[in-house]
Write a structure and sequence with these properties.
Helix content is 0%, strand content 57%. By secondary structure, it is mainly β. Strands 2, 4, 5, 6, 9, 10 and 11 form a 7-stranded mixed beta sheet that branches. A 4-stranded antiparallel beta sheet has the order 1-3-8-7, with no helix packed on it. A hairpin with a 5-residue loop joins strand 5 and strand 6.
């Protein structure tokens, strides 16, 4: 099966930085677009940023523009989210998403990681 595993979450003070990583593994035929979403307490899941396989950034939330940067390393099947100037309102569970053509399925599917918690607090 295909798996997405996030890492890098934790506690950070306002104004601090974190870098999240998400690595895809398993029966992957082709790894397409990847992205980050987040869900704050009591709120719906929202898009943070997405990036295509060719490294063009598809979208970025207005709330994180200028502070967060998405990137990927295709050789490692990994997408990153560099988070700078963190604010308390950035507190959320951050989920990795990837559109993948698996080896066992004739079509593309979206996969989700289990999420990693980012808490911004003094």
């Amino acid at each position: 099966q295909v798996q997405l595993v996030e890492s890098g979450g934790g506690l950070v003070q306002p104004g601090g930085s974190l870098r999240l990583s998400c690595t895809a593994s398993g029966s992957i035929f082709r790894l397409n677009a990847m992205g980050w979403y987040r869900q704050a307490p009591g709120k719906e899941r929202e898009l943070v940023a997405t990036i295509a396989s060719g490294n063009s950034i598809n979208s970025t939330s207005d709330s994180v523009k200028g502070r967060f940067t998405i990137s990927r390393d295709n050789a490692k099947n990994t997408v990153y989210l560099q988070m700078n100037s963190l604010k308390p309102e950035d507190t959320a569970v951050y989920y990795c998403n990837a559109n993948i053509r698996p080896r066992y399925y004739l079509g593309d599917r979206n996969y989700w990681g289990k999420g990693t918690l980012v808490t911004v607090s003094s």
